[in-house]
Design goal:
Helix content: 10-25%
Order of helices and strands: EEEEEHH
Strand order of the largest sheet: 1-2-3-4-5
Radius of gyration: 12 Å
Oligomer: single chain
Structural class: alpha+beta
């Protein structure tokens, strides 16, 4: 399996790990988004933290807060 890491905003506390068939976004050490790369876009969790993590989430889903899922649901989507 090939894995790569990117820092899309050049901030060390926001990064995306790309694996085979799935990308997982992290704010600090917390999973905040999952993209299965099947055209459905990012699934982003509800913000339970502060404004910096909120900015990372907004980067992924353009601020569509009404579409965010709870943490347990998002964790269940991770297959990396």
């Amino acid at each position: 399996m090939s894995v790569s890491v990117e820092h899309p905003t050049d901030r060390p506390n926001f990064y995306i790990v790309h694996g085979s068939g799935q990308s997982v976004a992290f704010s600090y050490r917390t999973i905040i988004g999952v993209n299965n790369r099947n055209g459905s876009g990012w699934f982003v969790r509800v913000n339970e933290w502060g404004p910096t993590t909120g900015k990372h989430m907004n980067y992924l889903d353009d601020g569509r807060k009404s579409e965010r899922v709870d943490g347990a649901t998002l964790q269940g989507m991770v297959t990396l």
